[in-house]
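This section describes the prediction task in plain terms. A model, or a person checking by hand, is given the sequence of a single protein chain and must write out its three-dimensional structure as a string of C-alpha cells. No templates, partner chains or ligands are provided. The sample shown here is typical of the held-out split.
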Amino acid sequence: MPLFWDWQRPASLAQAQTRFDSDLPIVLRGATARTRERHSDAITDSLALFDRARAGESFEGMLHERLDPRRWAAAGATIDAADTRELEKVFVHARRGRRVAARDLYAKLSWIAHDERDSSLRIRFSFGSEALLDWQKETRRAPWSDRLAAEAFPECAAITGSKPLVAFVERMLGCKPRFSERIIYNNAPGGGAHFHHDDEEHQLGVLYNQLEGATGWFALPKRQLAEFVAEFARGPLARRAGTSRKALRALDDTSDAALSRLLNSTPQFTRALAAVGTFYVLHAGDSILLPTHGPDDTCWHAVYALGSRPSLAHSYGLFAARRR
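The expected answer:
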C-alpha cells in the first residue's frame, strides 16, 4: 500500500525508511499542497508555455522572456537532427556581474514519446555535453543549472520551498540533498512513459511532484518486476527471461521488443501488477519518491497521463549536496 506521508509520526518515518532502503516507492500525499497555492500563477503560465510550444512557437524566445539578461547571457540554440524527439535545445551562460560564472547551461524541449500520437512534452535542464555525460562528471555547474530552472519556472519553489518535504528527503537519503537534472513535464491525455528506471551514476533517487492534473504510476523494485517477468514470459522470451535471475538481466536490454510488449502492452501482466498494490495515482500537490541504490536495486516505473487536459509536473534527480 502507498505510504501516506505524516512526517510528525515516528512510525511513519521508520516505515518510509524501510521502503526507501528496499527500493519501494513512497507516495507523499499533499507534499506540496500548501506551497503550490502560492505559485498558482506560475503554474498557469507554465501550462500556457507548453501550449504555445505545441503550437510551434519558438522555445528560445519563450525561455528568454522568463530570464533576466543581467543574470543569463544567450548562447544560442540547436536541434539534434539525430534525435527525433528533440525540438530545441537553448543554451545560456550564467553571469555574476560582468563575469561569466558558468558556461553552456541548457534547457532542452522534447517530445516525451516516439509515438507521434502522444503530444506530451518535457523540458530538461542540465549543462555541457550530453553525449559525454558532463552532468555525471562535474558538480560545479549543477547548482547554476538548478538556478536556471528555478528562474525559468518559478513554481520550482513549490518543491524546494517545502521545508517538510526537503527535510523528509534529507532523512531518507541520509545527507543534505541537491535537486538537480530538473525536468518539467507536460503529460498530454493518453500519453506517458513506458517502464524504465532512473539509475544513474551518483544519483540517489528521483522526486516527482504533481503540480497540476493527475498521473497514474506503476512503480516497484526491479527485482520484484523481474519476478513478474519470469512468471509471465512465454515462448522465446521464456528462454531469455524465464527465471528471476534471467529476467533481471533481460530488463537491462532496452531493445528487446518482446519484453517491452510484456511490460507495457499485456493486460494480464498489468492486472497482475495492479493486484499486488503497485499502482498509484498522483493528484495536484502529491509527490512520489523513487529510490535508487544501484543498477539492480532501483525503482522501475511507468507513467500514464490521466484527465482530459495536459498536466504539469516537476521531476528532480536527487544527489548528495557534497559528493561522497
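For orientation: The CA atoms of residues 2 and 234 lie 31 Å apart.
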